[in-house]
Amino acid sequence: MKRMQRTLAHLTAVAALATSLAGIGTTSAQAAMPACNDSTVYIDRAGFYTHVPTQVNMGSNFCTLRKGADNNAVYDLQQTLWYCYGGYLVTDGKFGPATETLLKKAQAQAGIPADGVYGPQTRDAIKFRFWQWETGTWRCLKLTDAPQPLTASTN
């Protein structure tokens, strides 16, 4: 009887550990992803450009932004959210409650989970503000809907 109780206790502990590790696994990938700290300018074939949040040191746009971030990447995301998803938003580069709320709105409109965290899934789903300096015109497009190819600016 004691052996059975011990075995059940071990199985319960293993199940609890497996459950907690499974929960950690889904968030650890996002937590392990670097924070975006600036933006890269992409220019489409029609001459419109946009700023995409990037982790500059790694040269990657596989990065995240969340409440508490304070940098140029947040500013550029705020510009996109303000122009493409409406609503008043102070574009100050500080990821606060208003930015999180408007990002959740954009995520919901794009049909992805509205968690208020910008990452690769959000980058691929939302529309970005594309601007053409010479004409003063802008438009909102998903990155994949912009006239291809998109070219990263070296400026």
TrEMBL record:
Domain Peptidoglycan binding-like residue range list: 71-126
Could you say which residues form the signal peptide?
1-31
**Pfam families tied to this protein:** PG_binding_1 (PF01471)
- The chain's coiled-coil residues are none
Q: Name the InterPro entries for this protein.
A: Peptidoglycan-bd-like, PGBD-like_sf, PGBDSf
SUPFAM superfamilies found in the cross-reference section: PGBD-like
Record key words, sorted: Signal
Name by which UniProt lists this protein: Peptidoglycan binding-like domain-containing protein
Lineage, highest ranks first = Bacteria, Bacillati, Actinomycetota, Actinomycetes, Kitasatosporales
